[in-house]
Amino acid sequence: MAKLEFNLDQIDYQILRIMQDNARTNNADIARELGMAPSAILERVKKLEQKEVILQYNAKINPGALDQKMLSFIFIKAQDIIGVQKVGFMLAEIPEVQEVHDIAGDDGYLIKVRTTDAAGLVDLMRNSLGKIEGIISTRTTIVLETVKEEQKLVVPTKK
Amino acid sequence: MAKLEFNLDQIDYQILRIMQDNARTNNADIARELGMAPSAILERVKKLEQKEVILQYNAKINPGALDQKMLSFIFIKAQDIIGVQKVGFMLAEIPEVQEVHDIAGDDGYLIKVRTTDAAGLVDLMRNSLGKIEGIISTRTTIVLETVKEEQKLVVPTKK
DNA sequence: ATTGCTATTGAATAATATTCTTATAAAGGG
DNA sequence: CCCTTTATAAGAATATTATTCAATAGCAAT
């Protein structure tokens, strides 16, 4: 793996801003908005993808539409050696687990899970978490309502 | 607001699967993959957007590229009356705060925050959180490393 | 100034998006 | 059963975009 070098200018930032806002904005529109040729934008976007500045494009789907209204965070205490995330990788393989973070403190993980309902959560804990070796204990926090949920980063403004 | 009715069939699920995987997949490609006419796909995608099954399209940007390598979760105990999320809304207005969840238990919130570094986090706590009336206490959990982070939902398969 | 490198433009062509008309099929009424 | 309504899809025609490529503008270093 080569060390990745990001070297972004204001135009890149503007592209990122637009893409964060609507990833399906087409090149022509971006070009018009930035007052440049579509081909130039295409070049830049490709470069951003290739440099892994843009990691992927995803559609945010309404969890309710797929009957996954329940959201929970679970703290997991594991006996992983520091720096080796065996349990972490196994957690990551569970489809309902959207996030797995190795956290400071109680040598553990924090995961974010979506299930249909409470029964689905119990199910997941029994059938998926229960089968992972190395989990010492868990503590579950249930989300009653989500006020905000996005992954937009703060894009630097002109300096 | 009318009660939203989702009524999705297998074709919709397939479209959602494709879109979750790559939101920039074009109509023609989706049509080819599903063996349908592009115009039919266009209709369905528009309908999915309009029914708010697809909420938005976003580009996932490498936090490192924007110098936001630090990720933290903060539990916030607030004196909001249950059901009224005054503090929650104020938290949601902070750009570095990506998520705000109203959680069960200690009448509080769980927020997800991205900053440049520890100094940025301290800064945010002092300058942004510090100015919100109604916050009683906070407890911060720092992420050492993220093993998985996505928002893909489990799309039902054929029944 | 000259060289070397990178990014941009503009034009040409390939590919898509979008609109609209027509065709099909399922559901409900009489 | 026939008719009507509603929803979805196909296909054709046209408007827009994407993509490629050659020419050139900018810039930094010398």
Automatic annotation (TrEMBL), chains A, B:
Any Pfam family the entry gives: HTH_24
The keyword Oxidoreductase appears for this protein: no
Domain named HTH asnC-type: residues: 8-69
SUPFAM superfamilies referenced in this protein's UniProt entry, alphabetically: Dimeric alpha+beta barrel, Winged helix' DNA-binding domain
InterPro entries: ArsR-like_HTH (IPR011991), AsnC-type_HTH_dom (IPR000485), Dimeric_a/b-barrel (IPR011008), Tscrpt_reg_AsnC-like (IPR019888), Tscrpt_reg_AsnC/Lrp_C (IPR019887), WH-like_DNA-bd_sf (IPR036388), WH_DNA-bd_sf (IPR036390)
Domain of life: Bacteria
Keyword annotations from UniProtKB, A to Z: DNA-binding, Transcription, Transcription regulation
SMART domains for this protein: HTH_ASNC (SM00344)
Record's protein name: Leucine-responsive regulatory protein
Organism of origin: Sphingobacterium griseoflavum
Record lineage: Bacteria, Pseudomonadati, Bacteroidota, Sphingobacteriia, Sphingobacteriales
